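ok trying this again, last paste got cut off
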Amino acid sequence: MALTGREKSTILLSILGADVSTRILRYLPDEMAELIASGINRLPSPSPVALSEVMNEFQSFLALPERPRPQLPLPAEVVPAEQPIVQRPKRSYGILMYERPQLSAFLISLMPEEQREEALQGLSRGREVVAEMLQALKNNPLAETLAGRLKELYAGKLF
């Protein structure tokens, strides 16, 4: 089934719900936001095939498959004992793109050190601004309370 971009976006936004859709539509040009919003209101029930197509395409943008690592033979004297290699799954940091740079910088500061660079690279726009804010971040009395609440809100998405 061949869907147009507008049909796909209308279906996706209708799945995401009114609150999330409103936040997303804010970032689009007014004419396009109006077209999509009116399309959501007139959207007939999408077929399971259309829903599947949209969700598969959306998911392909969120979780890219990891590149297989080549297995290099080790010399006999260096062969370690059998230990499974545990790789941390790649996370999508696209959610930070829709937050204010100040909040993005604070959230990145709460991440473990090895995850921070990956999160910064995951930002498609405003990366330099967030990096500067991250460097200039100061500690304040509310930081601990805020950190706890934000970790709850973003659990499973960033943490």
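PB: full thing came through this time. DSSP finds eight helices and no strands in the chain.
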